[in-house]
Amino acid sequence: MGLLVLNSCNNVQRTLPPKNRKPPQYESMFRELDTETIGSDNLKEAVKLPPGVDINEWLAMNTVDFCKQISLLYATLEEFCTPTTCPIMNVGRYEYRWADGITVLEPKMVSAPEYVECLMNWIETQIDNEIIFPKEYGAPFPSNFEDFVKRILRKVFRVYAHIYYSHFIMIVTLNEHAHLNTCFKHFLLFVSEFQLVDKEDMAPIKNLVETVLKP
After folding, report:
1. Buried/exposed code over 93-106 (b: 16+ C-beta within 10 A; e: otherwise)
2. Which of 1.20.140.30, 3.90.180.10, 3.10.180.10, 1.10.1740.10 is the CATH number of 25-85+112-213?
3. Does pTM surpass 0.85?
């Protein structure tokens, strides 16, 4: 399969001839460094819905936390992830184009830092919207709240995937790999627990995802 170009709704737009590539270095490095993360058993229990807690409240709280985590993680790479080093938002042969469905209707090619900036601004708009994320405890969530969560976390996954594929060696150099690995494992266990990100959306780093989620 060749280069896949995807828009913000995950629709494949075109396919180009494949190129021969060796397995990415981050996959073997992750296995070597995975011991420096919090144990899976602790995280598996941490993502489960606590007794008596409303599912939407749980999804909302964790979604906000995951967005904060990825924002902080990416911030450490801003000087290395630039329009020059990352002229497109991609994960290997998978390329993502930006559209928010409101101000940008036609998916457009942007650099990785521009994509992440647009994404973080869009996420902030979603979270600040009290119709979607009610601020008052006990206030009703929209009936399709899970759809909003899925849309947000699918895009958060893309940022994780880009970091691992394009910047993991720098993450190791900065000695941030243990924190990144733990955050990613927590994120994956959560979205798997509640089926919030589809397998096809995880295809760009499928082997890494399977490594992280292995029993």
Report:
1. bbbbbbbeeeeeee
2. 1.20.140.30
3. no
